[in-house]
What does this fold into?
Amino acid sequence: MPGARAGSGFEIVSREDFSDVTYLLQVHHPLMAKAARPGQFVIVMSHEYGERIPLTIADFDRNEGTITLVVQAVGKTTREMQQSSKAGTSLYSLAGPLGVPSRIGQAKKAVCVGGGLGVAPIFPQARAFKESGAYVIGIVGFRTKDLVFWEAKFRACCDEFIICTDDGSVGIKGLVTEGIRRTIEKHPDIDEVVAIGPPIMMKACAETTRPHKIRTVVSLNPVMVDGTGMCGGCRVKVGGQVRFACVDGPDFDGHQVDFDDLMTRQRRFTKEEKAALERWSESCRMKNPAAPDSPPSPSPAPFSNNSSNGLPELPDPFEEVEGG
It folds into this structure.
C-alpha cells in the first residue's frame, strides 16, 4: 500500500467548498495517484491523535500526482477536518489505496448514478467506462441547483447526463430513481448500473433495476477501523453471507445486499458519535471564549443550530432525500 506511511504528512494542495458541509481536498501523493483505481478508498488521519476514517477516492491525476477526496461534515472528525484542512496544510496519515477496484468489464452501455456525497466517487467509474469504450449515462442527484458540482467534469465523460433535484430548480424534479426509470425506458439495452450514495438511495436504485434484471453494483461504506479485514467492523450481509467491505468490496451486487442490516449497523454508534461531537464542540467554545463586551463569536463551522442541547444540526447520511 503506497500510502501506508504514518506520520510523514501529505500536503493538501487545494481545497474547494461545495456547500456549508461539503468540501473537496486535493492531496499530493504521486505513488497513490499512480496506484489508485476507480472504486478504491483511503483511510485518513488528519493529525497524530485523530480518528481513522475511510474516504472513497473521488478522483486521481497521475500526471499531477494528486488524489481528490470529497468530504461531508457529518460528525466530530469530519467537522474538525473542515476547520483544519486547508491548502498548504498536511494530513498526518493517508493509507491506501484500499479495497478491490471496480470491475469495469466489457459493458457497452453503463449507467452511473450518484446521490448526495455519492456524486463525487461515481465520477471515476463514469470516466473509466468511457475510456473502455462504453456508452455512458450519468445520473446525479442534489437538493437544489446551488449544490450542484462537477457538472462539466461529468458532461466531459458522459454521452448523456441527467441531474435530479428536490425542488426541480435544474433537471428532473425528484429522486435519482426517476432518472433511472426514464433511462431504462429509453435504453432497454443497459448492461450495468453503478450506484453510490446513502444506503437508502442505493437500495432504491437496486429495487428499480431488479424487475429489469440489470446488473447493479453499489459501493458500501460501513463503519470501518483498520481497512484490512482484521477488526470486523465493516461486515455486511450479501446474498445471505457475511462479507467485509474493506477487503471483499467496497463494490457488491446491489440485488444481494441486505440494506436494512447495513443501515441498522451504521446507527450502532450514534450515541458515542454524538458524545464525541459534544466534547469537541465544548472544547472549541473553551478555546475561543468571547470577550466581555464583544458579540458572540460565530460557530466553528457553518452549521445550523436548532437542537435543544445547543449542538449543531448535522446532515443525516441515511435520510431520504429526493435528489439523492
Remarks:
- The first strand starts at residue 10 and ends at 17.
- The domain at 109-266 is CATH 3.40.50.80 (Rossmann fold).
